[in-house]
Amino acid sequence: MKNRASDRSVTSADASAVAELLRDLGCPTEHDLVATTLERLLDGPTASVAITIEDEQGVVGFLSLSASPRRKPPP
Fold this sequence. Notes:
There is one protein chain. Helix content is 31%, strand content 29%. The protein is elongated and about 60 Å long. It has a 3-stranded antiparallel sheet with strand order 1-2-3. Helix 1 crosses helix 2. The relative contact order is 0.26. The protein has one domain (11-66). The protein is built from 2 helices and 3 strands. By secondary structure, it is of the alpha+beta class.
């Protein structure tokens, strides 16, 4: 059977899985730091965070986007 993957928006309950993925990718981090960062991103109006989940492996991808307005310099 083929392993299926799906994407969805992250929730604060995903902090442990995201921390584990980051450790697997060589970026050791603690659950509390990930939870705090996700909370800040989820509360902000200019950020979007998504994860990819495979049936057998759990969370295998993480994407965080953030935008901030920039003012054009005066001429």
